[in-house]
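re: that complex we talked abt at group meeting.

here r the seqs, copy pasted straight from the sheet so there may be weird spacing, ignore it
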Amino acid sequence: MTKVWVYAELTGGQVARVSLELLTKARQLTGDVTAIALGTGASAQAATLGQYGAKRVLVHEDAAYEQFLSEPAADTIATLIEQEKPDLLLIGTTYNGRDIASRLNARLDCGVITDGAQLSLEGGQLKAQVPWYSATTIVDVTLSGGITRLVLVRPKSFTAEVAADAAAPQVEQIQVQISQQARRAIVVENVVQASEGPKLEEASVVISGGRGLKQAENFKLLHDLAATLGGAVGASRAVVDAGWVPYSYQVGQTGKTVKPSVYIAAGISGAIQHTVGMKGAKYIIAINTDPDAPIFKFADLGVVGDVLKVVPALNEEIKRRKA
Amino acid sequence: MNIVVCVKQVPEPTGTNRIDPKSLRIMREGVDSVLDPADEFSIEAALQIQEANPGTNVIVVSMGPERALEAIRRGLAMGASKGVLISDPNLAGSDALATAKVLAGAIKRENPDLVITATESSDAYTGMVPGGIAHHLGLPLLSYAKKLTVSGGKASIERQTETGFQRVEAQLPAVVTVTGSINTPRYPALKGIMQAKKKPVDQLTAADLGFSPEQVGEKGAKEKVLGWAPAEQRKAGRVIKDDGTAAAQVADFLAQLKVI
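got the structure back, here u go
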């Protein structure tokens, strides 16, 4: 049977949501699904991984996976792949996932599909659909040569669902040594920049701001509206790069992927970078002064106007109706 | 100190990108090309380290068609010391796997203390090349840097994460990928543009770096494009001009969606 492996990324000892999405997809592809969980708290996550479809969980509890970037995980996974030669390894498109995948790709000389969706494995041939050019074109790709195929998948490409026939997985403690060589990129400190309200990835309403807000202080207008709507605040890469809001706000290619019921783009033009992360929203409302902004080409409701006027007016209007 | 910066010439990011129906590659003919804007941050980061550490060489390396020389010249105009262009018809159609191998081969010749790249290119955005380069050079990878400091033989960064950032450090030599928030790239001055024309640019082929035609380019690519189709597009909805009633109309829409 086709062997599909999923890298179960841990953040703060918990399995990342994207890994559960990948397990759900993996069990649709094959009956032989293995999850790899590395780091402090890995063993405790095995039951959850089993619920989402892992028949077997390979575990290595070692703090080195949190203390050093990418190399310990890439080394361990490469060793396991060389031993067991799975047909497919799925990794979520996260900062750590991308780092690990890029090293595995070079080390195993296997090739990698990035941002793969609609995965299929027919007659052993892997096919994936990859969005190009801001998802205006869908390209069918495959990987030739090599034994293990590597695919990176963006969060929210699949829905995470508990398996109806889930059983406790077989848990195996891996015996590997993490080399000194792998302990070079040292994580000195983790800084969490917490934001109030619902999490950006989980909120049903997201209000994102871009350059149209003119200055950092005006993000307060979005926070006020988000508080009224019970939503979360996001941002375009341009304003995150400009330091207006923390990285955790970023929606887009190098940021978060969100799929809320309603996405309000305030002063965002709709550059490729950004739209990749929000095109899955059920409804999109865009407010921008530029009538030619690309975002109006796919917004369900577009307002040609100044966000600094429309957003506070909208907040007042909603409060009035709620009262 | 030697700092290598990897750059790429890409189709003008705001232009309409197309796929060549014959080669199934990104159409590069008849399209305006520019130095990838993401690379300007890498060059600027290198130049700032150079300014703080006299005697530092900044070498701009690119793999691409002959006209990628323009991207290198722009890097030189900003202030880099030297360019390296790996250009060879055999390299056309290379995927991220081969690109990393070839770039690493060229970078190695420069004995780098530091390699700086963007986190991903603005045309293919796989993000797989920097980690590949780090692997082939046997170096640590400090990725997604929004801040970079080099001192005492060590590189320290602030690395973007899902929930904030991490402080990460490594002894040199190392590979660092930088985001757009790391600095504000300088604009090349006229003097720099004039000087750039006289700066040395080494030209290399795949064979110079020891690669056979089978290992790189279309032939060596593991990723194969089978076909493509236009994506189903979201349709443009109603667009209104704010005449003072926009807020009420948006509220109506939200009420219709039962958000309020």
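couple things i noticed - The helical segments of chain B are 37-52, 69-78, 96-108, 129-137, 190-196, 217-220, 246-256. The longest strand of chain B covers residues 141-151.
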